[in-house]
Amino acid sequence: MDSAIIRVGAAVQFFVPVAGDKARHFRTLDSCEATMEEARSTISKIFNGEPRSYTRFNLTQNMEGENSQVEMKLSSDMDEETGNPVGEHNGYAHSHNSTYARKPQRTPRNVCFMVIATLLIFIIGYLIGYLAHRRQDAEPVCAASSASASDSEAEARGPLLIEVEPTLNWDDIKKLLKDKLSTDSLQRTFNDFSRNDHEAGSSGDEALATLVFKRFNSYNMNPWTDEHFVRLQGPPTGANRVLFNGEEIGRPGGYLAYSAVGKKQGKVVYANYGTQEDFAHLQRERVELNGTVILVRAGRTSFAEKVANAEKQKAVAVLIYPDPFDYSIGMNEELFGHVHLGSGDPYTPGFPSFNHTQFPPAKSSGLPGILAQTITADTAAKLFRKMSGTSAPSQWVGLLGGVSYKMGGDNDNVTVEVNNVLTEKKIHNVFGVIKGFVDSDRYVVIGAQRDSWGTGFAKSTVGTSLLVELARAISDMVRKDGFKPRRSIVFASWSAGEFGSVGATEWLEGYLSSLNLKAFTYINLDGAVTGSETFQASASPLLYGLIEGTLKEVDYPTGPSGRTIYAQVAKANWEAEVMVPMKMDDSAYPFVAFSGIPSVSFSFAKKFQDYKFLGTFLDNKDNLNAATEYRLPEVAVAAAQVAGQMAVRLVHDHLLKLDIQRYKTKIRSYVSKINRQVYQLKQSGTLPESLTAQWLIMASGSYGRAVSNLLTSIENSDLNDIEMCRIINDRLMRVEHNLLSPYVSPRETPFRHIFMGSGPHTLNALVEHLDALKEGSPNADTNLFLNQFALATWTIKGCSNALEGDVWALDNEM
């Protein structure tokens, strides 16, 4: 432990421990007086003839922790110090690097120094006692000051006045945060972080990274950067092309990163939005899809999902266009995006891209093997005019003027040529931290992507501005207003978000073993403002309670004065009104599905439609301002308050605001559904009679009992017991991570979460597999289902065991 040094004359030196980031000692008036009394007693013993070379004594009677101690060293001159080792002296063991003094001769000079030192010590003790009694009505703090250390040394060691218990209650903290977030400040930050060109790895991206770093540094947040070398697919050096029966009808300016490259030709087939349901309709209509070029409109699902669905049908290429029914952006506006069905650098799947040369060549299983290209609405209209075949279903018809929506005929051949270029680029993530006063090694992460295809105002500028403003406000609360968070807050500015959360995912992959033990929540600021008419959120069930509580405390930015977000948007069932499933292209998705960190994304949005300028060059301040009914600064401040209150609540309370009962409900829901289907399939003879859902039911019961036991323990616990709170919080924060299936590879199946992940290990996949068995699908496999069923059962059981706590408290009966 670091020590503050008080030099008294030339004779006496006190060594008093200085609290660092992990200090947990409460100083009381009684302990201060006891400390001074024990010091006077010891000094008296020294001068009464007991050994004077070195004295060490503990203050554990009055302080928490065994390391609390005062060390005193007596010396008359620096030349009296020696390095002679002493094994044990008067019962105290000394380390090899301790410093000792020779027993001085009783010369008049030494006696004089001793008398002066004694007088000074008692004067200091009297003054400390006097000042402490004057503060008896205030919360007492026992502190030591340094007279000899330089200002820079004292600052490096940290503040000497230590008060672990927060001096502000929750209402004070809410008011402080609200007062420090203003429309004027956000407007200035918008202007500072607006860029016309800041694609990942570009000079504009680097300039913004430098600006974020400087802001964090000015807030005393000890910023640092994280460097990655990633492979990003950029636009072609020449041109991408689309031809109909040999006639060129378009040279798109937009592109889809991570498409396969080359030239493919096939019969064109219109497939609406390219969802699984749309392709199922085509199969029922016996439309041949093998070797075809699929034409779909943007929306409903991500570009990557559309391409993946088409590839499953053995198509050779996909063309995606913005129909005026969904996008009011004009007939010639280009679309940009990516088609990697995953996140991160797809050429370092499951491991970080710190240095590509350390790893053998690899590819993500989410990379498509077919061509993918965006086209304008005008090019799509040209295609429809040339296409033949039957008319599309009425619900598939869009708003392209003067166009008949056809399904495509046998002689409608389309050629797609994609020449995108794969390049390696260096990107930087930028971080800053506000450290906690109790559990500084436990932290919530707040993040926003910094890059975009063009201006990217809603996509990146707003989120980055909110990030910087929250960092300023909360750091100001700590430095000036007495806010003492128990846990830390990490602020993160990501790069390469447009290519599939590359910067964030690579960071997770690089520090996974550390993060899943210490990071307990991720709050995503991307797309936090895309409108003003309603509020939506996607999150881990563990955070539902936190979200609900926050919505009840933040005012709606465009509603009646004093009307909260909850009152504005919630009706009979707030979850049905507010919560929506988290999508794979959500920046928070890899945190929860890959790393097992509870995560949340939220947005003030328009009702019944998405913000249509994302992924275009029209995502600018003017269009976003119009989408928010020209109340952009007010809506942005409300978004900052939502994110800020969630983060501050998580680091302020004794116990983490993680609602473990929510997963009990989800588990029971899936178990009920699976049990019912298993019973039906056993009755029909599809599944063996020996199969039973009893083990899954009992695993569900084990989780329920573990939740009940932990909640009972919390009710009977002393929340002022720091160590007890830490133990409980560690059990709470591990729930999400323990719902990652340990039976699949993070490289082959990165999104291992059994509820929110993707792959055959998920509970949703179990339900779908049972449906396939019921329908007699050729893709159904009874043995595969039995294996998946067993592994899912043991994943839930393992989670309940971890939540239960110590191994001797576990129920080993399934």
Automatic annotation (TrEMBL):
It is a single-pass type II membrane protein. Stearoylated. It is found in: Cell membrane; Melanosome. Residues 265-326 form the PA domain. Coiled coil: none annotated. GO terms for cellular component: external side of plasma membrane; melanosome. GO terms for molecular function: transferrin receptor activity. The chain crosses the membrane at residues 111-132. It holds the Pfam family Peptidase_M28. This is Transferrin receptor protein 1.
